[in-house]
Structures are given as structure tokens and as C-alpha cells.
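Hi all, posting the design record for the shared folder.

TITLE: backbone redesign
STEP: 1 of 1
STRUCTURE INPUT:
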């Protein structure tokens, strides 16, 4: 086959790509991730029994804002990673804002209590299970995030996989907050972040293997 004929054959079914195609895929992945995490949470853990009373507490909304802000920053970064050669800009810096704010609040809280009370504030009553629970709830969003990336053209595969894992972890933490009884910022600063770090690290490992094109 001649080169000109091959080019003509490849261009026969050429169709323009929608400008927001990547954003649509990530919107679908996020919706599927939240819905899947919600089903898993209700099946495995259930809502906390005092949820209606808890919604009046500022720290309950603080947990949701932290996870939602990290998910939004991760999504903004991920949509750039999905496009080859697209600069990250200042979006990477926004990822650092939610954990830095939370860590600052945690340090301030610890500084206000006697030394004997600091470890209980960090450990809470669910430190053994919290990170694993968040990681478990992140599975639907993790799978959906990789599906969204497979329809794009990422070139930094490890970073793209880590971004998908971070988004999944943040969405998992967002849903897990509806079950989690913990409210102390030192606990959240350690164990919520640890729970999000698990899918992030897994995504970095699997990215080069699953996102290659």
C-alpha cells in the first residue's frame, strides 16, 4: 500500500474530538465514583447513627470541605495530565493547600491541650481501620478514573495514575465522612491523609502499566 493511500484510509473516518470530551469523562468517572462509594459505605459500614445531630457541628462540614477541596484540586490537575504536553501551571500548588491548612489546624489543636491528651487526639478510636476503609471506598472512583484516563492521552503515566488515585481517595474520604465518628483535626490530618495516600501510591504504580498507549 502506498503512503498516500494509507493516509487517505486513516483519514476516512476522521471525526473532530469534542473540546470538553476529557472533562465529560472525568465528570462521569467522579459521579460513578461517588455513587459507588456511597453504595459500598451503606453496605459495609452504614451511616453514623447520630448523623442528623452531627450536621450541626462545624467540624463535620470541615471534613467534607477538606475532602471536596482536595478532590477539586486533584480533578483540575488530572485534566491537565490527560492532555499530552499541557503545562500543569499553578494547579499542582492547589493540591498542597487543603492538607497544609488541615495540618496547621491540627498543630494548633495539639498545642492547646496537655501533652497527655495529644496521642488520644491523634489516634481517636478508629485509627486502625480508618485508612483502610477510605481506601476501600475509593475503589469505584479508582477504576472509573483509570477508565477516564484510558480515553485520553496522558504521557506522564505514573503521575497521571497517582492523580487518579488521589481523586479516588478524596472522593472515598468524602463519602466515608458520613460514617466516620472522628472529629478531631489531628486524627483527620494523619489518618484521612493516610487513607488517601493508599490509592495515590497504588495509582502511581499501576499508571505506567495500565495507561500505556
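Okay, here is what came back for every position:
SEQUENCE:
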Amino acid at each position: 500500500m502506498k503512503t498516500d493511500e494509507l493516509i487517505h484510509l486513516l483519514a476516512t473516518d476522521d471525526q473532530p474530538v469534542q473540546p470538553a470530551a476529557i472533562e465529560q469523562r472525568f465528570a462521569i468517572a467522579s459521579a460513578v465514583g461517588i455513587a459507588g462509594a456511597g453504595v459500598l459505605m451503606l453496605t459495609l459500614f452504614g451511616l453514623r447513627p447520630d448523623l442528623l445531630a452531627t450536621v450541626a457541628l462545624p467540624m463535620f462540614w470541615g471534613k467534607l470541605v477538606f475532602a471536596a477541596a482536595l478532590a477539586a484540586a486533584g480533578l483540575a490537575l488530572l485534566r491537565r495530565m490527560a492532555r499530552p504536553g499541557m503545562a500543569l501551571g499553578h494547579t499542582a500548588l492547589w493540591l498542597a493547600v487543603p492538607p497544609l491548612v488541615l495540618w496547621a489546624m491540627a498543630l494548633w489543636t495539639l498545642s492547646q491541650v496537655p501533652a497527655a491528651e495529644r496521642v488520644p487526639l491523634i489516634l481517636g478510636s478508629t485509627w486502625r481501620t480508618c485508612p483502610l476503609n477510605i481506601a476501600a471506598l475509593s475503589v469505584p472512583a479508582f477504576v472509573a478514573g483509570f477508565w477516564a484516563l484510558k480515553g485520553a492521552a496522558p504521557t506522564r503515566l505514573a503521575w497521571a495514575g497517582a492523580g487518579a488515585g488521589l481523586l479516588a481517595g478524596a472522593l472515598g474520604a468524602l463519602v466515608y465522612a458520613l460514617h466516620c465518628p472522628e472529629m478531631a483535626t489531628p486524627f483527620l490530618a494523619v489518618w484521612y491523609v493516610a487513607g488517601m495516600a493508599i490509592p495515590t501510591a497504588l495509582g502511581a504504580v499501576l499508571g505506567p502499566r495500565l495507561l500505556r498507549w
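COMMENT: The CA atoms of residues 66 and 98 lie 6 Å apart.
Let me know if anyone wants the other runs.
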